[in-house]
Amino acid sequence: MPAPYFDPKTGLLLDRVFASRRIFDLEQGSVFRKSWLLIAPTDWLDEPGAFVTTSMGRDPVLAWRASDGRTRVFINRCVGGSSRLAEDERGSMEVLTCPCHGWAYAAQAGATELSPIAVPRVEAFSGFIFACMDEEAPPLADWMGDFGWCWEVISRRYAGGLAVCGGASLRARLACNWKLAAEAHSGDVYSDLTLSKATREVLDLGAALAERRGLQIAAGRGAIAVTVGGGRSPEDPREDMTPVLATLFPNISYDGRGSALHVWHPRGVAETEVQTYCLAGRDDAEVHSLGARRRCQQLFGPAGLMTQDQDAVWSAISAGARTSRGHPLNLAMGLGRERRSNLPGRQSDLASEMNQRAFYEWWQEQLSTPSVPPLGDRMTVDRPSRPAPN
User: Fold this and answer.
1) CA pair distance 58, 238, nearest whole angstrom
2) What is the pLDDT of residues 86-114, one digit of tens each?
3) Residue 239: exposed, middle, or buried by beta-carbon count in 10 A (0-12, 13-18, 19+)?
4) Which of 132, 155, 176 is the last residue of a domain?
Protein backbone atom coordinates (compact mmCIF):
# COMPACT_ATOMS: atom_id res chain seq x y z
CA MET A 1 0.00 0.00 0.00
CA PRO A 2 1.38 3.47 -0.88
CA ALA A 3 2.42 5.79 1.89
CA PRO A 4 -0.39 7.99 3.27
CA TYR A 5 0.07 11.23 1.38
CA PHE A 6 -3.13 12.82 2.65
CA ASP A 7 -4.43 12.88 6.24
CA PRO A 8 -8.21 13.50 6.27
CA LYS A 9 -8.13 14.12 10.03
CA THR A 10 -5.86 17.15 9.70
CA GLY A 11 -6.39 18.14 6.06
CA LEU A 12 -2.63 18.00 5.41
CA LEU A 13 -1.37 16.86 1.99
CA LEU A 14 2.27 16.16 1.15
CA ASP A 15 3.19 18.31 -1.82
CA ARG A 16 5.40 15.65 -3.38
CA VAL A 17 2.22 14.10 -4.84
CA PHE A 18 2.54 16.83 -7.50
CA ALA A 19 6.15 15.99 -8.39
CA SER A 20 6.62 12.22 -8.02
CA ARG A 21 7.07 10.26 -11.23
CA ARG A 22 6.31 7.04 -9.35
CA ILE A 23 2.95 8.37 -8.18
CA PHE A 24 2.16 9.68 -11.66
CA ASP A 25 2.84 6.27 -13.22
CA LEU A 26 0.79 4.52 -10.53
CA GLU A 27 -2.16 6.83 -11.23
CA GLN A 28 -2.45 5.62 -14.80
CA GLY A 29 -3.48 2.12 -13.77
CA SER A 30 -5.04 2.78 -10.37
CA VAL A 31 -6.97 5.95 -11.18
CA PHE A 32 -7.47 6.55 -14.90
CA ARG A 33 -7.84 3.02 -16.28
CA LYS A 34 -10.25 2.13 -13.46
CA SER A 35 -12.49 5.18 -13.88
CA TRP A 36 -15.26 6.13 -16.27
CA LEU A 37 -13.83 9.00 -18.34
CA LEU A 38 -15.46 11.47 -20.71
CA ILE A 39 -14.68 10.82 -24.37
CA ALA A 40 -16.75 13.20 -26.52
CA PRO A 41 -20.18 14.79 -27.04
CA THR A 42 -22.66 12.33 -28.52
CA ASP A 43 -23.59 14.92 -31.19
CA TRP A 44 -20.09 14.66 -32.63
CA LEU A 45 -20.67 10.98 -33.39
CA ASP A 46 -24.17 11.06 -34.86
CA GLU A 47 -23.26 9.79 -38.34
CA PRO A 48 -21.71 6.44 -39.39
CA GLY A 49 -17.98 6.83 -39.90
CA ALA A 50 -17.66 9.84 -37.56
CA PHE A 51 -14.71 9.65 -35.20
CA VAL A 52 -13.25 11.72 -32.36
CA THR A 53 -9.77 11.44 -30.87
CA THR A 54 -8.89 12.11 -27.24
CA SER A 55 -7.12 10.29 -24.41
CA MET A 56 -7.88 8.28 -21.31
CA GLY A 57 -5.11 9.19 -18.91
CA ARG A 58 -2.03 8.96 -21.11
CA ASP A 59 -3.57 6.36 -23.42
CA PRO A 60 -4.64 7.84 -26.80
CA VAL A 61 -8.12 6.69 -27.81
CA LEU A 62 -10.47 6.95 -30.77
CA ALA A 63 -14.28 7.00 -30.53
CA TRP A 64 -15.79 5.77 -33.80
CA ARG A 65 -19.37 5.21 -34.94
CA ALA A 66 -19.89 2.14 -37.07
CA SER A 67 -22.47 1.53 -39.79
CA ASP A 68 -24.53 -0.53 -37.33
CA GLY A 69 -25.11 2.66 -35.30
CA ARG A 70 -22.91 1.66 -32.36
CA THR A 71 -20.21 3.94 -31.05
CA ARG A 72 -17.09 2.08 -30.01
CA VAL A 73 -13.91 3.34 -28.39
CA PHE A 74 -10.48 2.01 -29.41
CA ILE A 75 -6.86 2.56 -28.55
CA ASN A 76 -5.69 5.07 -31.17
CA ARG A 77 -2.68 3.07 -32.20
CA CYS A 78 -1.76 0.60 -34.91
CA VAL A 79 -1.35 -2.91 -33.50
CA GLY A 80 1.87 -3.22 -35.47
CA GLY A 81 3.63 -0.31 -33.79
CA SER A 82 3.14 3.09 -32.21
CA SER A 83 1.63 5.01 -35.14
CA ARG A 84 -1.70 6.70 -34.43
CA LEU A 85 -4.57 5.85 -36.72
CA ALA A 86 -6.01 9.37 -36.60
CA GLU A 87 -4.51 12.72 -35.60
CA ASP A 88 -7.41 15.14 -36.16
CA GLU A 89 -9.74 15.86 -33.25
CA ARG A 90 -12.76 15.04 -35.44
CA GLY A 91 -13.38 13.48 -38.81
CA SER A 92 -15.31 10.87 -40.77
CA MET A 93 -13.90 7.73 -42.39
CA GLU A 94 -15.27 4.26 -43.07
CA VAL A 95 -11.73 2.86 -42.89
CA LEU A 96 -8.62 4.25 -41.21
CA THR A 97 -5.23 3.30 -42.60
CA CYS A 98 -2.03 3.17 -40.56
CA PRO A 99 0.37 5.71 -42.14
CA CYS A 100 3.32 3.44 -41.33
CA HIS A 101 2.17 -0.09 -42.21
CA GLY A 102 -0.73 0.59 -44.56
CA TRP A 103 -3.00 -1.69 -42.55
CA ALA A 104 -6.68 -0.84 -42.76
CA TYR A 105 -8.94 -0.70 -39.70
CA ALA A 106 -12.71 -0.44 -39.41
CA ALA A 107 -14.99 0.43 -36.53
CA GLN A 108 -17.07 -2.69 -37.15
CA ALA A 109 -15.65 -6.17 -36.89
CA GLY A 110 -15.48 -7.99 -40.22
CA ALA A 111 -15.33 -4.88 -42.39
CA THR A 112 -11.56 -5.26 -42.70
CA GLU A 113 -9.02 -7.85 -41.63
CA LEU A 114 -8.71 -6.35 -38.17
CA SER A 115 -10.06 -3.73 -35.79
CA PRO A 116 -8.11 -1.60 -33.33
CA ILE A 117 -7.83 -2.69 -29.69
CA ALA A 118 -11.24 -1.96 -28.17
CA VAL A 119 -11.96 -0.27 -24.83
CA PRO A 120 -14.34 -2.76 -23.17
CA ARG A 121 -16.90 -0.41 -21.56
CA VAL A 122 -18.72 2.40 -23.39
CA GLU A 123 -21.90 4.26 -22.39
CA ALA A 124 -23.79 7.39 -23.39
CA PHE A 125 -24.89 9.68 -20.58
CA SER A 126 -26.28 13.23 -20.47
CA GLY A 127 -25.19 14.09 -24.00
CA PHE A 128 -21.67 12.63 -23.74
CA ILE A 129 -19.87 9.36 -24.48
CA PHE A 130 -18.03 7.83 -21.51
CA ALA A 131 -15.66 4.85 -21.50
CA CYS A 132 -13.81 2.71 -18.99
CA MET A 133 -10.85 0.35 -19.47
CA ASP A 134 -11.77 -1.79 -16.45
CA GLU A 135 -13.93 -4.68 -17.67
CA GLU A 136 -15.13 -5.28 -14.10
CA ALA A 137 -16.22 -1.70 -13.41
CA PRO A 138 -19.90 -1.21 -12.53
CA PRO A 139 -22.20 0.61 -14.97
CA LEU A 140 -21.59 4.35 -15.14
CA ALA A 141 -24.64 5.35 -13.08
CA ASP A 142 -23.68 2.90 -10.32
CA TRP A 143 -20.05 4.03 -10.46
CA MET A 144 -21.04 7.69 -10.05
CA GLY A 145 -23.23 6.84 -7.07
CA ASP A 146 -24.89 9.82 -5.41
CA PHE A 147 -22.96 12.21 -7.63
CA GLY A 148 -25.55 11.42 -10.28
CA TRP A 149 -27.94 13.55 -8.18
CA CYS A 150 -25.38 16.37 -8.27
CA TRP A 151 -24.89 16.04 -12.04
CA GLU A 152 -28.59 16.73 -12.46
CA VAL A 153 -28.11 20.01 -10.58
CA ILE A 154 -25.91 20.99 -13.54
CA SER A 155 -27.95 19.56 -16.41
CA ARG A 156 -31.21 21.09 -15.14
CA ARG A 157 -29.74 24.58 -15.60
CA TYR A 158 -29.68 24.09 -19.37
CA ALA A 159 -32.91 24.12 -21.38
CA GLY A 160 -33.43 20.71 -22.92
CA GLY A 161 -30.26 19.30 -21.35
CA LEU A 162 -26.55 19.76 -21.99
CA ALA A 163 -25.21 20.53 -25.46
CA VAL A 164 -21.79 21.63 -26.69
CA CYS A 165 -21.42 24.91 -28.59
CA GLY A 166 -19.14 24.92 -31.61
CA GLY A 167 -17.52 22.16 -33.59
CA ALA A 168 -14.30 21.93 -31.61
CA SER A 169 -13.14 21.99 -28.02
CA LEU A 170 -10.78 24.59 -26.57
CA ARG A 171 -7.34 23.29 -25.60
CA ALA A 172 -4.54 24.74 -23.51
CA ARG A 173 -1.35 23.38 -21.94
CA LEU A 174 -0.72 24.06 -18.25
CA ALA A 175 2.61 23.61 -16.47
CA CYS A 176 1.05 21.84 -13.50
CA ASN A 177 0.03 18.47 -12.11
CA TRP A 178 -3.50 17.45 -13.13
CA LYS A 179 -4.70 17.00 -9.55
CA LEU A 180 -4.37 20.71 -8.77
CA ALA A 181 -6.93 21.54 -11.44
CA ALA A 182 -9.33 18.76 -10.47
CA GLU A 183 -9.31 19.56 -6.76
CA ALA A 184 -9.67 23.30 -7.31
CA HIS A 185 -12.79 22.74 -9.42
CA SER A 186 -14.21 20.51 -6.71
CA GLY A 187 -14.92 23.57 -4.56
CA ASP A 188 -12.27 26.32 -4.54
CA VAL A 189 -14.69 29.26 -4.38
CA TYR A 190 -12.53 31.47 -2.17
CA SER A 191 -9.93 32.10 -4.89
CA ASP A 192 -12.62 34.22 -6.55
CA LEU A 193 -11.78 36.83 -3.90
CA THR A 194 -8.07 36.82 -4.68
CA LEU A 195 -6.71 34.94 -7.68
CA SER A 196 -9.52 35.84 -10.11
CA LYS A 197 -10.56 39.15 -8.56
CA ALA A 198 -9.33 41.33 -11.43
CA THR A 199 -10.86 39.04 -14.07
CA ARG A 200 -14.17 38.98 -12.24
CA GLU A 201 -14.30 42.77 -11.97
CA VAL A 202 -13.20 43.47 -15.56
CA LEU A 203 -15.78 41.08 -17.01
CA ASP A 204 -18.47 42.08 -14.49
CA LEU A 205 -19.05 38.53 -13.28
CA GLY A 206 -20.86 39.69 -10.17
CA ALA A 207 -20.15 39.09 -6.51
CA ALA A 208 -17.36 36.72 -5.54
CA LEU A 209 -18.55 33.16 -5.08
CA ALA A 210 -17.37 33.05 -1.47
CA GLU A 211 -19.64 36.00 -0.67
CA ARG A 212 -22.77 34.22 -1.84
CA ARG A 213 -25.11 31.91 0.04
CA GLY A 214 -24.54 28.27 -0.75
CA LEU A 215 -22.97 24.97 0.22
CA GLN A 216 -20.63 22.21 -0.82
CA ILE A 217 -21.73 18.61 -1.36
CA ALA A 218 -19.37 15.63 -1.53
CA ALA A 219 -21.32 12.60 -2.74
CA GLY A 220 -20.43 9.39 -4.53
CA ARG A 221 -17.44 9.82 -6.82
CA GLY A 222 -17.62 13.58 -7.08
CA ALA A 223 -18.13 16.92 -5.41
CA ILE A 224 -20.09 20.09 -6.22
CA ALA A 225 -20.32 23.66 -4.93
CA VAL A 226 -23.65 25.45 -5.40
CA THR A 227 -25.28 28.74 -4.52
CA VAL A 228 -28.85 28.62 -3.22
CA GLY A 229 -31.74 31.03 -3.13
CA GLY A 230 -35.03 31.85 -4.76
CA GLY A 231 -37.08 28.99 -3.37
CA ARG A 232 -38.30 27.88 -6.80
CA SER A 233 -39.24 24.34 -5.77
CA PRO A 234 -39.27 23.34 -2.10
CA GLU A 235 -40.18 19.80 -3.17
CA ASP A 236 -36.87 19.33 -5.00
CA PRO A 237 -33.92 21.28 -3.53
CA ARG A 238 -32.00 20.97 -6.81
CA GLU A 239 -34.35 23.50 -8.40
CA ASP A 240 -33.14 26.06 -5.84
CA MET A 241 -29.45 25.42 -6.58
CA THR A 242 -27.12 27.07 -9.08
CA PRO A 243 -23.95 25.02 -9.71
CA VAL A 244 -20.72 27.00 -9.69
CA LEU A 245 -17.99 24.33 -9.50
CA ALA A 246 -18.02 20.54 -9.67
CA THR A 247 -15.73 17.60 -10.37
CA LEU A 248 -16.64 14.05 -11.31
CA PHE A 249 -13.56 12.21 -10.12
CA PRO A 250 -10.96 11.96 -11.37
CA ASN A 251 -10.71 14.63 -14.09
CA ILE A 252 -14.06 16.00 -15.36
CA SER A 253 -14.89 19.46 -14.02
CA TYR A 254 -17.68 21.99 -14.45
CA ASP A 255 -17.26 25.76 -14.07
CA GLY A 256 -20.49 27.73 -14.08
CA ARG A 257 -18.74 31.08 -14.46
CA GLY A 258 -18.17 30.29 -18.13
CA SER A 259 -20.56 27.36 -18.70
CA ALA A 260 -17.51 25.19 -19.25
CA LEU A 261 -16.87 21.47 -18.94
CA HIS A 262 -13.16 20.76 -18.51
CA VAL A 263 -11.30 17.48 -18.94
CA TRP A 264 -7.83 17.50 -17.34
CA HIS A 265 -5.56 15.22 -19.40
CA PRO A 266 -2.29 14.26 -17.63
CA ARG A 267 0.54 14.72 -20.10
CA GLY A 268 3.39 14.56 -17.59
CA VAL A 269 4.09 14.90 -13.88
CA ALA A 270 3.94 18.68 -14.21
CA GLU A 271 2.11 19.06 -17.51
CA THR A 272 -1.65 19.00 -18.06
CA GLU A 273 -3.67 19.57 -21.19
CA VAL A 274 -7.09 21.02 -20.47
CA GLN A 275 -9.79 20.25 -23.02
CA THR A 276 -12.78 22.54 -22.57
CA TYR A 277 -16.28 22.08 -23.96
CA CYS A 278 -18.46 25.20 -24.06
CA LEU A 279 -21.95 24.35 -22.83
CA ALA A 280 -25.42 25.63 -23.71
CA GLY A 281 -28.94 24.22 -23.53
CA ARG A 282 -30.16 21.99 -26.34
CA ASP A 283 -33.23 24.19 -26.66
CA ASP A 284 -31.34 27.50 -26.54
CA ALA A 285 -31.54 29.89 -29.47
CA GLU A 286 -28.46 30.05 -31.67
CA VAL A 287 -27.64 33.60 -30.59
CA HIS A 288 -27.56 32.47 -26.96
CA SER A 289 -25.27 29.55 -27.82
CA LEU A 290 -22.89 31.85 -29.69
CA GLY A 291 -22.77 34.20 -26.72
CA ALA A 292 -22.04 31.31 -24.36
CA ARG A 293 -19.22 30.17 -26.65
CA ARG A 294 -17.64 33.64 -26.72
CA ARG A 295 -17.78 33.99 -22.92
CA CYS A 296 -16.34 30.53 -22.41
CA GLN A 297 -13.49 31.22 -24.82
CA GLN A 298 -12.82 34.58 -23.19
CA LEU A 299 -12.40 32.87 -19.83
CA PHE A 300 -11.01 29.43 -20.66
CA GLY A 301 -9.47 29.46 -24.13
CA PRO A 302 -5.68 29.11 -24.58
CA ALA A 303 -5.35 32.84 -23.82
CA GLY A 304 -8.39 32.91 -21.53
CA LEU A 305 -8.22 35.20 -18.52
CA MET A 306 -9.05 32.54 -15.94
CA THR A 307 -6.81 30.02 -17.67
CA GLN A 308 -3.89 32.40 -17.10
CA ASP A 309 -4.96 33.17 -13.52
CA GLN A 310 -5.13 29.51 -12.59
CA ASP A 311 -1.99 28.34 -14.37
CA ALA A 312 0.10 30.97 -12.59
CA VAL A 313 -0.69 29.45 -9.18
CA TRP A 314 -0.92 25.78 -10.11
CA SER A 315 2.39 25.85 -11.98
CA ALA A 316 4.09 27.55 -9.01
CA ILE A 317 2.86 24.81 -6.66
CA SER A 318 4.03 22.09 -9.06
CA ALA A 319 7.44 23.72 -9.46
CA GLY A 320 7.84 24.15 -5.71
CA ALA A 321 6.96 20.50 -5.10
CA ARG A 322 9.98 19.40 -7.17
CA THR A 323 12.40 20.93 -4.67
CA SER A 324 10.33 20.50 -1.51
CA ARG A 325 11.35 18.25 1.37
CA GLY A 326 7.86 16.97 2.01
CA HIS A 327 6.26 20.24 3.07
CA PRO A 328 2.53 19.62 3.71
CA LEU A 329 -0.17 21.74 2.13
CA ASN A 330 -3.07 22.72 4.39
CA LEU A 331 -6.62 21.89 3.24
CA ALA A 332 -8.24 22.29 6.66
CA MET A 333 -10.74 25.08 5.92
CA GLY A 334 -14.10 24.03 7.34
CA LEU A 335 -12.66 20.86 8.90
CA GLY A 336 -15.03 19.54 11.55
CA ARG A 337 -17.99 21.53 10.24
CA GLU A 338 -19.21 18.92 7.79
CA ARG A 339 -22.78 17.81 8.25
CA ARG A 340 -25.38 15.45 6.83
CA SER A 341 -28.98 16.18 5.94
CA ASN A 342 -31.67 14.92 3.58
CA LEU A 343 -29.29 15.72 0.70
CA PRO A 344 -26.88 13.08 -0.65
CA GLY A 345 -23.42 12.72 0.87
CA ARG A 346 -21.83 15.27 3.17
CA GLN A 347 -22.38 19.03 3.16
CA SER A 348 -20.36 22.01 4.30
CA ASP A 349 -20.36 25.79 3.99
CA LEU A 350 -19.73 27.16 0.50
CA ALA A 351 -16.38 28.66 1.59
CA SER A 352 -14.77 25.41 2.70
CA GLU A 353 -12.21 22.83 1.59
CA MET A 354 -14.38 19.82 2.33
CA ASN A 355 -14.69 18.96 -1.37
CA GLN A 356 -10.94 19.17 -1.92
CA ARG A 357 -10.46 16.81 1.01
CA ALA A 358 -13.06 14.46 -0.47
CA PHE A 359 -11.12 14.42 -3.75
CA TYR A 360 -7.83 13.46 -2.10
CA GLU A 361 -9.50 10.86 0.12
CA TRP A 362 -10.90 9.20 -3.01
CA TRP A 363 -7.61 9.57 -4.90
CA GLN A 364 -5.58 8.02 -2.08
CA GLU A 365 -8.00 5.13 -1.80
CA GLN A 366 -7.59 4.38 -5.53
CA LEU A 367 -3.81 4.14 -5.19
CA SER A 368 -4.23 1.29 -2.71
CA THR A 369 -6.37 -0.80 -5.10
CA PRO A 370 -5.08 -3.22 -7.78
CA SER A 371 -3.91 -1.50 -10.94
CA VAL A 372 -5.45 -2.08 -14.37
CA PRO A 373 -2.75 -2.78 -17.01
CA PRO A 374 -2.72 -1.13 -20.44
CA LEU A 375 -5.20 -2.73 -22.85
CA GLY A 376 -2.48 -3.79 -25.27
CA ASP A 377 -0.87 -5.87 -22.49
CA ARG A 378 -4.02 -7.89 -21.89
CA MET A 379 -4.74 -9.45 -25.25
CA THR A 380 -3.16 -11.08 -28.26
CA VAL A 381 -3.87 -9.40 -31.57
CA ASP A 382 -3.98 -11.35 -34.83
CA ARG A 383 -2.01 -9.32 -37.30
CA PRO A 384 -2.82 -9.40 -41.03
CA SER A 385 -0.60 -11.43 -43.29
CA ARG A 386 -0.43 -8.69 -45.91
CA PRO A 387 -0.93 -4.92 -46.10
CA ALA A 388 -4.40 -3.69 -46.92
CA PRO A 389 -4.81 -2.62 -50.54
CA ASN A 390 -4.46 1.06 -51.37
Assistant:
1) 35
2) 999 999 998 888 888 788 888 776 655 57
3) middle
4) 132
In the DSSP assignment, the letter for residue 135 is: T
Kind plus residue range of the DSSP H or E element containing 267:
strand 260-268
For residues 42 and 130, is the Cβ–Cβ distance under 8 A?
Answer: no
Segment 204-229, tens digit of pLDDT = 888 888 888 999 999 999 999 999 98
The angle, 0 to 180 degrees and rounded to 10, between the axes of the packed helices 354-367 and 178-187 is 140
Strand ranges of the sheet holding 6-7, from the earlier edge strand across to the other edge: 6-7, 12-14, 328-330
One domain, residues 118 and 226: no
What are the distances in angstroms from CA 243 to CA 62, 214, 239?
31, 10, 11
- Containing domain of residue 73, as a range? 37-132
Residue 281: closest CA among 121, 174, 163? 163
CB 101 within 8 A of CB 81: yes
